[in-house]
Amino acid sequence: MKKIVSSVLAASMVLSLAACGSTATTSESGAASSEATSTASSSAATGESAGSGSYTGTPIKIGGIGPVTGAAAVYGNAVKNAEELAVKEINAANGSDVFEWQFEDDENDAEKSVNAYNTLKDWGMQILAGPVTTTPSVAVAAETVNDNMFMLTPSASSLSVILNDTNDESTARGNVFQVCFTDPNQGVASADYIADNGLPTKIGVIYDSSDAYSSGIFEKFKAEAETKGLEIVAAEAFTADNKADLSTQLAKCQEAGAELVFLPIYYQEASQILIAADKIGYDPEFFGCDGMDGILSIEGFDTSLAEGLMLLTPFAADAQDEKTQAFVSAYEAAYGETPNQFAADAYDVIYSIYQAVLAGGVNGDMDASEICDALKTQFTSMTFDGLTGTGMTWDATGAISKNPKAVVIKDGAYAAM
């Protein structure tokens, strides 16, 4: 059985199919049933604010964007479902609608994401919860700056989402925030975890040089590995146009004597590498990032290849705290799947916005720019307790500060450590 080690910011992925472009209010029927909503109310996620019933204004229109079709749909559907669930819970607990919500499919395409953004603007969107993936988020973020639209992404982790110049924090867009960890944090945390937990120090790396997410994590990992005494014996790149067969990159890691292979790539490519390693009898430890999330949901993939996979994640579905269990129960009842880290982050997106709305006196009668200014003030000064962390804060760049948890794949599922 292959031993795999992964230090990431992700948990098990699900594929929940739902129609895009729908809205969610307390009166609407849909995937998130009223029974599931009443079973595990929003107060489980954010303390007592959701049950306060203190919002009496005009409903605020929140738009969501993400891939619910195409290769990245495993990410987008999790986000879509969790946003829908959170909105329905908040509205039900309040006794009247706080939010109206609409979600648009972007198929993980930047141009389609901008089109989705414009569709939501035509609908009257006042706050954007999304997009889900990095390249679409960068494109949409530029549009939101022009409109002074508040944008909070659950999972687009690149610094390029929140900064115009990733080397200069003074170039922060100002209106764009993240609930997920940034890519540099993933690279640094991965190197630190390997060094601090006695894992092999002879490291091979396979990364996508054409992808900002992958190459950004690798660069920070490489710098931190040097300070931690880790030896990168092979660093093998591929591109989006040349990733059908990654056996050559894997073989070079084997030839160099890599005892651990770091994979800051997405789960589709990672699965190819794990299968290839099994075929040639190469048995290093594998260590991934949050793009690895979804590997257990690939149709036809032998999940025994992932047994023992360790991850640093902000969310573990089997954690026993009240907030997590209430969310998991409600999500499973509504969608028939176990929620993943992307779902948990999206849930926190909606609830953190709700906390800021209440604290900042935001009302649906305000225009999007007024709401954005109010939310920026709240997010850079408030502390939020959610599913993916307690005491979460945001700095002026829009980056979040929160601590990961450790999970491991055991018997084909993620378990808290």
Considering the chains and any ligands shown, give keywords for the structure.
five-stranded parallel β-sheet; four-stranded parallel β-sheet; alpha/beta; 417 residues; 17% strand; disordered N terminus
Describe the structure.
- It is a single chain.
- The chain is an alpha/beta fold and 417 residues long.
- It has 13 helices and 15 strands.
- The strands form four sheets. It has a five-stranded parallel beta sheet with strand order 2-1-3-4-5, with helices on both faces.
- Helix 4 (110-123) crosses helix 5 (134-147) and helix 7 runs parallel beside helix 8 (212-227).
- The longest helix has 22 residues, at 73-94.
Largest sheet features: 5 strands, parallel
Q: Which percent band covers the strand fraction? A: 15-25%
> What strand order characterises the main sheet?
2-1-3-4-5
Number of helices: 13
Briefly note the structural class of the backbone. Answer: alpha/beta
Q: How widely separated are the two ends?
A: 20 Å
Q: Round the mean pLDDT to the nearest integer and report it.
A: 86
SSE series: HHEHEHEHEHEHEHEHEHEEHHHEEEEE
- Low-confidence segments, ≥5 residues, pLDDT <50? 1-52
What fraction, in percent, of the residue positions are helical? Answer: 25-40%
- What's the shape? globular
Q: Kindly state the number of beta strands.
A: 15
Tell me the Rg in angstroms. 21 Å
